[in-house]
Amino acid sequence: xxxxxxxxxxxxxxxxxxxxxxxxxxxxxxxxxxxxxxxxxxxxxxxxxxxxxxxxxxxxxxxxxxxxxxxxxxxxxxxxxxxxxxxxxxxxxxxxxxxxxxxxxxxxxxxxxxxxxxxxxxxxxxxxxxxxxxxxxxxxxxxxxxxxxxxxxxxxxxxxxxxxxxxxxxxxxxxxxxxxxxxxxxxxxxxxxxxxxxxxxxxxxxxxxxxxxxxxxxxxxxxxxxxxxxxxxxxxxx
Length: 238
Known about the structure:
The protein has 238 residues and is α/β, with parallel strands linked by helices. Helix content is 53%, strand content 16%. It comes from Caryophanon tenue.
């Protein structure tokens, strides 16, 4: 199921529900793009029709951000839990390992995807990561050929949003995988080059605050949240 937040569709399922949908799609070979939806993206999409179309045309939109949960509560909607981009990737890898589904990692600086692969293999014994490719290969034909040669079911692309989603949309009709997710800096987190907020902050839905304390320059981006909630409240009165 989906609900709409300021014109952007968002899935209402939690991780377990999304796993069912994703792996059903793999069995049917029904291609899908997974995009992470947060208040910052929604506010940008209100001013950018191409971004709005990109988000709404994706098959699966995960509620990545406490602001989306708060907005759903204000709307008396059905979204009750965050589904973060990095945790969605990890759950897909965990479930993929159990089901023997091959995975490919594309993007990041040279060596980062390989380190992420090693970490995932440590976390999920038996996982089939059948290939990696850094994001610095300029020949797109080479990238597509490498992916198609090993026939993965899931492809994670780490280029930053919306570049990664645009690349997926431009190429997925000629690629073998069924499930595509843009994962931003997730390879760097797995590789250990970027630290994620400690588990306490994640569980308290305060990961954004932890990042703000660590990087005060993010204050401009974080100001999107109160503006976003104000827009949601205004839209309710219309």
